[in-house]
Amino acid sequence: MKRIALVVSVVGLVFGGVILAQTQTPSVEQELIKLENEWADAWIKRDVEAYARLLADDYISTNSYGDMKTKAQSIAWLKSDWPKSHEKTISLIPHDFRVRVYGDAAVINFRLAYKNQVQGKESTGQDQITDVWIKLGGRWQCAASHSSEIAQK
Q: How far is CA 122 from CA 18, 19, 47, 89, 118, in A?
């Protein structure tokens, strides 16, 4: 009887330690969601350095119109006067994440709620985003992104 109590206690301690370790260290999924939120924040703040750090050197984005931008073009767009003078992004809120990790690669699908100010008028909407992240040199970077505007009902 004492043996059974000892085995149950040891098993409980082992599982308790595993559960504690899982709650104290972020999962890869949580880390990638955090990076997606940092990316949105970098855009709002026009933080070119933070924005560039999140993108792989060969990054490509595609929007729902089929327009493609490289990392350099995306950074140039962020720095340019056009979005500052014609369109101001007030908020970007990524949500409804689905993260699938494949070793040093991951695919993230999520919705991005946005609020813009265009020529003095506010507009809101949502995009469906698919991002492909790769782990290079020990850190995650986005290699490809596709966004599609979700039609408002």
A: 48, 46, 23, 10, 6
Q: Cβ atoms within 10 A of the Cβ of 88, count?
A: 14
Structure tokens at 22: 């899982």
The class (CATH top level) of 27-150 is alpha beta
The secondary structure of 6-31 as a DSSP string is HHHHHHHHHHHHHHHHHHHS--HHHH
CA dist., res. 126 & res. 148, Å (int): 9
Distance CA 6, CA 8 (A): 5
* pLDDT tens digits, 112-144: 999 988 888 998 999 999 999 999 999 999 999
**Tokens in use for 100?**
């699938």
Q: Where does the pLDDT of residue 21 fall: very low under 50, low under 70, confident under 90, or very high at 90 and above? A: very low
To the nearest 10°, the Cα dihedral for 60, 129, 35, 25?
Answer: -130
Q: Where are the domains of the chain?
A: 27-150
